[in-house]
Amino acid sequence: RLTPADLDGGTFTVTSLASTVVDAFTPIINPPQAAILGVGRVRDTVGFTASGPVPRRVTTLSLTFDHRLNDGAPAARLLGRIVELVERPYVLVGA
């Protein structure tokens, strides 16, 4: 378990409730950090393609950031990039 002292000097936190029944939540920034990413539980759902319905595993990501440091556009780009890497991790290795 982390203590407040463990967060000293940090700029970004990832917090997860994936092991619970919580689908989504709003994480609170730990000052003076710039942002925090919340990860909800992974759940089964149905997606639809041109071929018809397919099973999907999904999660909800929630990004909270300090608007005094930047506006929503860079935060949205960051979240979009995180989604891209989670959905296609092979991008990290150039495959």
What features would you describe in this structure?
- This protein has 95 residues and is of the alpha+beta class.
- It has a single domain (4-89), classed as Chloramphenicol acetyltransferase-like domain (Chloramphenicol Acetyltransferase, 2-Layer Sandwich).
- Helix content is 17%, strand content 31%.
- The protein has one helix spanning 72-87, and strands at residues 12-16, 35-39, 43-49, 52-58, 61-65.
- The strands form two sheets. A three-stranded mixed beta sheet has the order 1-2-5, with helices on one face.
- The longest helix has 16 residues, at 72-87.
- It is globular and about 50 Å long.
User: Which residues form runs of ≥5 with pLDDT under 50?
Assistant: none
Strand adjacency order, main sheet:
1-2-5
Query: Structural class, judged by helices and strands?
Result: alpha+beta
Total helices: the number is 1
How many structural domains are formed by the residues? Answer: 1
Q: How many DSSP-defined strands?
A: 5
Intertermini distance:
36 Å
The CATH superfamily appears as Chloramphenicol acetyltransferase-like domain
Please name the CATH topology: Chloramphenicol Acetyltransferase
Can you give the helix content as a percent range?
10-25%
Apparent shape: globular
CATH class: Alpha Beta
- Helix-strand pattern, N to C? EEEEEH
Main β-sheet description: 3 strands, mixed
- CATH architecture identity: 2-Layer Sandwich
Beta-strand proportion: 25-35%
What is the gyration radius calculated from CA atoms?
16 Å
On the 0 to 100 scale, the average pLDDT is 92
